[in-house]
Design goal:
single chain, alpha/beta, Rossmann fold, 12 helices, 38% helix
């Protein structure tokens, strides 16, 4: 078994009738068990990339595709969308567009039932998914009556019940309040750390998610323009600013301090906590506080 969950080689895609490709020579690798963060301006091609990863491209969406995409060991051009759905699942930013059952239980059961699984296996997956998203007590509730964070958790659970190896989350906190955002991001961490899921996360709330990532990809006009660890990518403020993007607040503060000629040593801080430690060192001359 390959150590890589996602392998994209020289991927190019041009929609039918389009004058130019939406994706151009994309190359990226995500190892099993990693969390990868995908960022980029609006229109960068993120949605098209997701459709390539789950097999909608080239199986259902018409266009011209070049290169190769493998997810969980399956070549997307050689396997059907239903087969790929058992390997990769997508959670969209608005849970209401992908939740349509009248109870949480039915929503968690929908995917496994459509796989034609035995009744006991469906029941087992419902219970396992409910435990993973921590909504065991709400299985009979109507999703429309849940909070935004709970609804997004249900959307994640409906994907989880398919037991995919790779979970793609498309700005899952963009429509949520701070409490809901915390809930969903804690769920993302749990799916990764406790259940070993490989995560591809697109998110604009950089401060909340940057510390979760093992690697970061910056997409612009259909191309990967920057990739590496969070420290490497967010250590390139000029490139990010040119795209209208910003690094986490702690990293931005560090860049501004350096611009004023203040010498700073050590790894680029990503979290607020690390930023506070940096300021304490500066204010105390490196002495313990």
């Amino acid at each position: 078994m390959s150590e890589n969950a996602v392998e994209v080689q020289d991927l190019t895609f041009q929609y039918m009738g389009a004058s130019q490709p939406t994706l151009r020579e994309i190359n990226l690798t995500i190892r099993r068990g990693e969390i990868a963060l995908l960022i980029g301006p609006t229109g960068a091609g993120k949605s098209t990339l997701y459709h390539c990863l789950n097999g909608l491209i080239p199986n259902l969406i018409r266009g011209r595709m070049g290169g190769r995409v493998r997810v969980a060991g399956l070549d997307t051009s050689e396997h059907t969308v239903p087969a790929l759905a058992q390997k990769v699942g997508i959670v969209f930013q608005d849970p209401e567009i992908q939740i349509f059952s009248l109870s949480v239980r039915d929503e968690l059961a929908f995917g496994p039932e459509n796989l034609g699984l035995a009744k006991q296996e469906v029941l087992n997956r419902i219970q396992a998914a409910a435990h993973a998203i921590q909504l065991q007590d709400l299985l009979d509730r109507e999703p429309a009556r849940l909070s935004g964070g709970q609804q997004q958790s249900v959307a994640v659970g409906s994907v989880w019940s398919m037991l995919p190896e790779v979970v793609i989350l498309d700005e899952p906190t963009s429509n949520l309040d701070p409490e809901g955002s915390v809930r969903v991001l804690e769920l993302v961490k749990r799916l990764n750390q406790e259940y070993g899921k490989t995560i591809l996360l697109a998110e604009h709330k950089i401060d909340e998610v940057a510390a979760l990532a093992d690697q970061v990809f910056v997409l612009d006009r259909g191309q990967i323009v920057l990739q590496g660890t969070p420290q490497q990518v967010f250590g390139e403020p000029a490139v990010l600013h040119e795209l209208g993007l910003v690094a986490p607040a702690a990293a931005e503060l560090t860049h501004r301090l350096k611009a004023y000629g203040i010498p700073l040593e050590g790894e680029l801080p990503i979290t607020i906590e690390d930023g506070v430690k940096l300021l304490r060192r500066l204010l105390t001359g490196g002495q313990p506080v």
